[in-house]
Design a protein that fits this description.
- The protein is about 60% helix and about 0% strand.
- By secondary structure, it is mainly α.
- A hairpin with a 2-residue loop joins strand 2 and strand 3.
- Helix 6 runs antiparallel to helix 7, helix 8 runs antiparallel to helix 9 and helix 9 runs antiparallel to helix 19.
- About 45% of the residues are buried.
- Bound molecules: amidocarboxymethyldethia coenzyme *A (AMX).
Length: about 425
């Protein structure tokens, strides 16, 4: 496989680089930790490695050094499309280089070959109660695929540690290929007629998702799917879904165990679930005013939300201190294709008004929008209106980044994660000193 060969070629150099860095500078201090951070969710403590992506507080996410506009501009695109191949993005994440069109297509072909979901997974999902949350179904389905793990088999067969990454890559490719099919089945099962979707090898990853969901504007939604998966793929190492996948993988649990755990974290309201809360809020404004309100009406509505003790969903960020470039990319996508849509006009007005309100309130460190402020509105436009499903779509994007990280963690022999905990009494004691 092309990705395997390219990683293989890079690996000796990477191993030497990391070995020398740790050997020559292992004792060098790069951060200090205070009690507030220990009690504050380890916020900002520099203690993880990822060469796949980095969030710059001032400019936003960079994938292998490329900003969102650069990624969207430089990656190869399917014929007649404006949004790049997801396979090209995965090549960039894995290899660190912008692929040729042929490279991107080769990744897509690999996924098509691996996309068949075993029948027992469908049967298992069908037996679940009707009101099961789609994220439960997704996480269960991923775990159910574990019996096919090539890494688990290789480990059991006593393969050398240096080679763990090869079967991890195989699992990563299998899992990524099957995930949109499983997600589409969950959509059919929960909200449509429950038919089993079929991956079409003539279509790319994003176009397949659109096709398998069965939306009306298949071409338009294929573009949105590619955009959505690219934007949601990775956000450096410390966010809950990425960190969880890494942590579980660090115990040498295989990619199915690791990603299923990551999905469970993604399901939380402070993480992936936020996108549906954002759309909820936009719709509540639309319904309250029968459309797009005036600036003054929205200003008052936003203050009412804050005074009611609630946050304004879609605004603020733990790391970013500017407008999230993933928000901007989605807004531009919508303005180019459906500028008159009520929710898009509303999202634009909110972008104008809410940062002012949050600045006046003075609490949020970043009053600008994050990725979630608009993502649900775009899904809604194409008729994917089942809010509970939105985090599943996020999961189909997120698998790309966390699998790239996991393969490289295995390739570079990253050890089991094991931070140290303290008791409150110990910290009180050290505070006195
Ligand atoms: N509305 C109202 N208050 C906000 C706010 C918002 N959008 N964003 C931050 N604040 C408040 C916080 O609640 C906190 O108040 P407190 O001191 O009373 O607890 C204060 O401002 C400081 O918070 P912060 O350091 O700026 O943010 P954070 O790093 O603690 O949290 C986040 C970041 C995203 C959880 C927060 O901004 C928030 O709750 N936003 C709304 C929900 C949302 O958009 N989530 C999506 C996150 C992106 C993702 O993972 N998908």
């Amino acid at each position: 496989m092309m990705l395997h060969d390219k990683i293989s070629a890079q690996l000796p150099g990477w191993r030497e680089r990391v070995k020398n860095l740790v050997k020559d500078n292992g004792e060098k201090v790069i951060d200090q930790v205070n009690i507030g951070q220990v009690y504050g969710g380890m916020r900002d403590i520099k203690s993880m490695v990822s060469d796949i992506s980095y969030v710059d507080p001032g400019t936003g996410i960079k994938f292998r050094g490329y900003s969102i506009p650069e990624v969207l501009d430089k990656l190869p695109k399917p014929d007649g499309a404006e949004i790049p191949f997801v396979g090209g993005l995965f090549h960039l994440l894995m290899i660190g280089e912008i692929p040729t069109t042929a490279d991107a297509q080769e990744v897509e072909v690999e996924w098509a070959k691996r996309s068949t979901v075993p029948g027992y997974v469908y049967s298992m999902l069908r037996t679940m109660p009707k009101d099961t949350h789609p994220m439960v179904l997704l996480s269960q389905a991923v775990l159910a695929l574990e019996n096919g793990s090539k890494y688990a088999k290789a480990y059991h067969d006593g393969i050398k540690k240096d080679l763990y990454w090869e079967s991890t890559l195989e699992d990563a490719m299998d899992l990524i290929a099957k995930l949109p099919v499983i997600a589409a089945f969950i959509y059919q099962l929960k909200y449509r007629d429950g038919k089993e979707p079929k991956y079409n090898p003539k279509l790319d990853f994003g176009a397949n998702f659109s096709h398998m969901l069965g939306v009306k504007d298949e071409k338009g939604y294929a573009e949105l799917s590619r955009l959505y998966f690219i934007l949601h793929s990775d956000h450096e190492a410390g966010n809950v879904s990425a960190h969880t996948t890494h942590l579980v993988g660090s115990a040498l649990s295989d990619p199915y165990f690791a990603f299923s755990a990551g999905l469970n974290g993604l399901a939380g309201p402070l993480h992936g679930l936020a996108n549906q809360e954002c759309l909820d809020w936009l719709i509540s404004v639309r319904d309250q005013f029968g459309g797009v309100p005036s600036r003054e009406e929205l200003y008052k509505y936003a203050w009412d939300t804050l005074n009611g003790g609630k946050v304004i969903p879609g605004y603020g960020h733990a790391v970013l201190r500017v407008t999230d470039p993933r928000f901007t990319a989605q807004l531009e996508f919508a303005k180019k294709r459906f500028p008159d849509d009520v929710l898009i006009r509303l999202a634009e007005l909110v972008y104008d008004v809410v940062p002012v309100v949050l600045k006046e309130q003075g609490k949020a460190k970043n009053p600008a929008p994050n990725v979630d402020a608009i993502s649900g509105a775009l899904q809604y436009y194409y008729g994917v209106c089942d809010f509970d499903f939105y985090t599943v779509i996020f999961g189909v994007g997120r698998v790309l980044g966390v699998m790239a990280n996991l393969v490289w963690s295995r390739a570079l022999g990253q050890p089991i994660e094991r931070p140290k905990s303290l008791t409150t009494a110990m910290m009180e004691e050290s505070a006195k000193k």
